[in-house]
Amino acid sequence: MKQISRWVPRGIVKEAAESHGIRYRTFDPWSHLVTLLVVQLSREESLNGICDIAQAMSYEWDRAGMEIPRRNTLSNANAKRDPAICGG
After folding, report:
1. Considering just the CA atoms, what is the radius of gyration of the chain in Å?
2. What residues contact residue 30 under an 8 Å CB cut-off, 6+ apart?
3. What was the pLDDT predicted at 58?
4. 23: phi > 0 → left, psi -120 to 50 → alpha, else beta; which?
5. Which of 77, 47, 54, 78 is nearest to 5 (CA)?
6. What is the pLDDT of residues 61-83, one digit of tens each?
7. pLDDT tens digits, 5-28
8. In sequence order, what are the residues at sequence separation of 6 or more whose Cβ sits closer than 8 angstroms to the Cβ of residue 33?
9. Buried b / exposed e across 70-81, counting CB within 10 Å, b at 16+?
10. Which domain holds residue 53?
């Protein structure tokens, strides 16, 4: 998990989030981006599956300084955040 989190520096994601007006309270854009990378690598498609993976790897998630995604939080972030922040 720590290796995955090193692919994209936090500062770049923070700047992109600010430039796109992304607002958040707990699930920061960097944690969201790394979660999406894990989703791609695991090929998991369901929110429950994604959150189960995160929970199973909670130690690594914490060690990388990321917020562990919760089902509702991840769903809300996917629905409301501009995909342009990830280059989409």
Report:
1. 12
2. 8, 10, 13, 14, 66
3. 87
4. beta
5. 54
6. 888 878 888 888 888 777 877 66
7. 777 777 887 887 778 777 777 778
8. 8, 13, 85, 86
9. eeebbeebeeeb
10. 2-86
Q: pTM value?
A: 0.70
Tokens of residue 7, six digits: 């692919």
How many domains does the chain fold into? 1
Alpha carbon dihedral 26, 32, 33, 38, in 10-degree steps, equals 140
Residue 15, Cβ neighbours under 10 Å: how many?
12
Q: Nearest to residue 81, comparing CAs of 9, 28, 45, 5?
A: 28
Q: Let me know if 14 is exposed, middle or buried by CB neighbors in 10 A (0-12, 13-18, 19+).
A: middle
Most distant CA pair in the chain: distance in Å? 33
Helices assigned H by DSSP within 1-88 = 2-5, 10-19, 29-42, 47-56, 58-63, 71-80
